[in-house]
Amino acid sequence: MRLWPASLGPASLGTVLALLLALCGQRGEAAVYVVSQDGGALTEVDGAVERAPVSVGAGPAGLAAGPDGTLYLTHPDRSTITVVAPDEARVLRNLAFAGQPFGIAVSGDGAKLFVGDWQGGRLVRIDAATGAAEAELAVGPEPAGLVRDGAGRIYVAERGGDAVAVVDGATMTRLARVPVGRAPFALGLSADGSRLYVGNVRTNDLTAIDTALLTAVATRPAGRSPYGVAVHGDRILVTNQESATVSVLDLDLTVTATIPVGRYPEGIAVEGARAYVANWFSDDVSVIDLAQMRAVARRKVPGGPRALVARPAFARGTAR
């Protein structure tokens, strides 16, 4: 059975599919976004064409992407979660949160949000459409970074407790509490989910957690104030606030490269062969070529960029 006209060769099939996806509003590219805390904005930073930032209100801090491309931003000082359809450059809704929302993760089906209450020391599961709280669990003080794995477990960096809480997202019960270094903030999960990497701000090191055993298996020096963690294949990328660099570590947690970036780097995200680093004090994003292992560009963004997220491919134009 022929799937295209006889006059249209198979080599042209990709062009036809791209046209069909564009007509349906699904262009297929992934995208990277950054939130600017001082500027109250959300900006796409990896496109060939620079888009105007989306105004999201004062003080956004945390950022997560749903499976359909919808973005969720936490505002700790406003007790609000902002829901954004970035391709439409508009805020869809604001969800009230009874507490100080900071770290955030999205369920696999996009129906639930997991939110860390910075002031209240809680993990709260809420309805992504209405913001209604469904369940909560006490965790350590100052829950910072949140990561969800493929099994539906939520990992919570307890910055004030020097540990990582492991929570079953479906039952909202604690599975484990894993001691790490001092002031853990950012978390990065390996592609296969077997390792969780934890940046410990006050001990300047990185802890690897075996997610099957739920124990720490190694802690090694990373850089000065490691505040962001991303995993790319067999490399772990760590932003170092106080030295304006990104450390690159191998799976043995040995530093193999150090890449200069902007001032006070925080969040980091990887998309394709590039990493993107939010430079809080430079008001820009460094773009790192992972083949060359060096920064190749800087993108200016509104003031105080802190968190980034890579949105999945084939999601653009579908967020509602």
UniProtKB/TrEMBL annotation:
InterPro entries according to UniProt: Haem_d1_sf (IPR011048), Host-pathogen_enzymatic-act (IPR051200), WD40/YVTN_repeat-like_dom_sf (IPR015943), YVTN_b-propeller_repeat (IPR011964)
Going by the UniProt record, its keywords in alphabetical order are: Lyase
What GO molecular function annotations does the UniProt record carry, in alphabetical order?
A: lyase activity
Record's protein name: Virginiamycin B lyase
Source species: Methylobacterium gregans
Lineage from the top down? Bacteria, Pseudomonadati, Pseudomonadota, Alphaproteobacteria, Hyphomicrobiales
Which gene holds the coding sequence for this protein? Answer: vgb_1
